[in-house]
Structures are given as structure tokens and as C-alpha cells.
Amino acid sequence: MDAEGDVVVGVDENGLGPRLGPLVVTAVCLQRSPTASTARLRAAASEAGIGDSKLTAGFGRMATAETIALGLLERLGPIPRDADELLARVALDGPLALRARCPQQGASRRQCWERIVALPAFGGDPETGRRAVDRLERAGIVPIRIGVVWTCTAALNDARAEGRGRLDVDLEAMERLVLDARRAVGRDVTAVCGMVGGVRDYATRWRWLDAAAVRSSSLGRHRCVYDVAGVGRIAFEVDADARHLGVQLASMVGKYVRELSMARIHEFYGRFEPELPRASGYHDSVTARFIAQTASLRRRLRILDRCFERETHGGSQARRGRNDSPDASEVATRSRRSKPGLESEAESESESESGSETEFECESESETKSQTGPKAESESVPKSESEYETEP
């Protein structure tokens, strides 16, 4: 650890398995003091209510996540006044670039972008967030960057049409965020990402990171670690959001960004149908009712099904309408590299935020050897282990 302290990047996704709304992948970049104490960090995080967003936040209970997110954002500049300003601050592709990808016909763009959601939106308290970040800094952790890759429903459906599932998109976003953090800080970083599906060797799936730059690797069922020249150390780990402060913060910020997007969608439709239920976007009866009750309105407004609901192998769950033929302006930006997609996803969408191991065909144990030698990580990371880390 150098005199400045290590730069640690926590990366996590939110919205991997819903029917509605974006997939949000978030990175929180932290500088850890050489004198940082794990015990003090754990105490500071616990006191602030920081943890995995599946435990600390959720649909209808976003105040804590909003509080922490606003506290972090304030350390990096003025608190955003609304959801658009927030995306302009943190999204690798800002709101103007994201809107430019929307179809020109009908009101497909309006459903995601028309409504202005002022912040705080969910009862979060910026002053409490400020004190929470103060506690982290006294314990030896300073936030230095937040990055988000925001992928809309249409882009996910376009990726699927190209043979790339949501897990491919998830992994690509993680790669982009790690590279963005490395460029921003100007030196190697230590990145921890949640495990994506059942992949056993991520370097073979990379589209943005360079597999040829891997100097060493340690591959196991619960943890894959790569030493990448010019980037740093990158780990993909099961239950990373239970063990790593950076991943927990990324999880909370990402959940906040996704819920703001869902609030905008609800407010758009609620302007026409005030009695509409507020839906989470996941696989629940309220979301199913929201989809059914907006069907005629969407047809009237010429909102494309591919912009509204994620498709499954059998096609969109909201049947494709006559307005769903994309024109040239609707085609999503293609990846700068062409590489075969990951194994196809399971037929049914998972409600879980993390990919199921059944969604990829896992490599055999014989394929989990180190790229630079025969040694592979054989020990597991037990779920019961509660070690609180800021690096792999």
C-alpha cells in the first residue's frame, strides 16, 4: 500500500431481472488510507446503515439509500437538483446521449425522460448522508468517483436480438466502469465486482478489457481474480455485496438510480391514469397489473413494446404491436468489438438482482486453471464469513 493509499472500486448491478425499467451498473471509487482500520470501517458503515441494497433498500423503502447516495454525491460536487442532473454527473453516457438512442416515433422517449423528479425524492436526508460520509472518512475511506452505466429496456432487447443476453450487457458495463475508474485516477486500481452468472473465466468473455493483458489469475467457483497490466487487480466474487464496502455503496447508489427511473415512468403514465398502482417493475402482481392497465394507453401514444418491457425467449411479454418495427434511428449503438455472446439465459426471468448460475453453462473444473500456471483458487468464500473488506 503506497503513501496515498490504495484506490478501491466496488461494482454492482441493480435491475438485472425485472420486467420493466433499466439495468443499472454502478461503480463507487474509494481511496483507502494506509492506516484504515477494518473494525472502524465496519462500525462506521453499520452506524450509517450501509449494506447490500437488497437488505438496506427496496421498492417503497428508499430513504436510507437516497441519504447515502446524496452524501456521496455531495463529496464530489453540489447535490443534483433532479434525476437528470444526477445522471449527468455519474452516467458514462449522459442523459443527452441516452435520449438520442430513443426512437423518434410516438411517445417512447417521453415515458422515460419527460417527467422531472426533484431530489430528494424518497425522504432521504442530505445532512444525515453528509454525517455518514464524514464517519467513513474518519475511518480511512474517501469517495473519489461514482460511475453508472444505465441500459434501457430497448437496448437490452436489442442486445438480445444480437445474441447477447442481459448478463453479457452486465459484464460489459462492469468492464467499462473499471476502465473508467482507472483512467480517472491515473493509476492501477483494485476492483471488486459481483459474480456474473456461472462464468468461470471472465477473461474469455471480455469485450472491453484485454484478455492478453492478464499477467496472472486465480479462478475458483466463488471468486475469480485477475492481475491486468495497465488496469490493476479485478475480482469477481460471490456475495461481494455482503463483504465489501465499495460494492455495498455501489449497490445502494445503483438501486437509487434505478428507482428514480421507475418513478419517472410511473409519473408519466400516472398523468393519464391517476389510479395506476406504483409498480416495482419486477415479477409481481402489481407490476403485472400496471402492464395490463397501460396497454391501451401505450397503443394510443404509440409507445413501442420493445421500449416498455423486456423480452423473453418467447418474445415480449407485452405482445409486440404494429408500431414495433424499428427504424434506423432506433437501432442501439453496437459494441466496438464483435464477440460471441455468453450462453443463453434461462427461459424465465429471475426476480433476483444477481444472475443465477444456471443461466450460463458453467465451465468444467478442469477449465478453472490459472492462465499463467496450474494453480487455481480452490478454497471457497463461505457465505457465513462476515469479513468486511475494501479490497480482494
Proportion of residues in β-strands: 5-15%
Strand runs, count: 9
Proportion of helical residues: 25-40%
> What's the CATH superfamily, by name?
Ribonuclease H-like superfamily/Ribonuclease H
Task: Output the CATH class name.
Answer: Alpha Beta
- Count, helices: 14
CATH architecture annotation name: 2-Layer Sandwich
Main sheet: strand order: 3-2-1-4-7-6-5
Average predicted local confidence, pLDDT: 82
Biggest beta-sheet profile: 7 strands, mixed
Q: Output the CATH topology.
A: Nucleotidyltransferase, domain 5
Poorly predicted tracts of residues: 313-340, 343-387
Rounded to an integer, what's the Rg over CA atoms?
Answer: 21 Å
Termini, distance in Å?
13 Å
Q: What would the principal axes of the Cα set say about the shape?
A: globular
Order of helices and strands: EEHHHHHHHEHHEEEEHHHHHEE
Q: Which class best fits the helix and strand makeup?
A: alpha+beta
How many domains would you count in the coordinates? 1
List keywords for this structure.
14 helices; 392 residues; two-stranded antiparallel ribbon
Describe it.
Helix 1 (38-48) packs antiparallel against helix 7 (126-139) and helix 3 packs across helix 11. The longest helix is centred in the middle third of the chain and has 26 residues, at 245-270. The chain has 392 residues and is an alpha+beta fold. Strand 8 and strand 9 (315-316) form a beta hairpin. The chain is globular, with a radius of gyration of 21 Å. Mean pLDDT is 82; it is low at 313-340 and 343-387. The two termini are 13 Å apart. The chain has 14 helices and 9 strands. The protein has one domain (1-321, 335-375): Nucleotidyltransferase, domain 5, CATH 3.30.420.
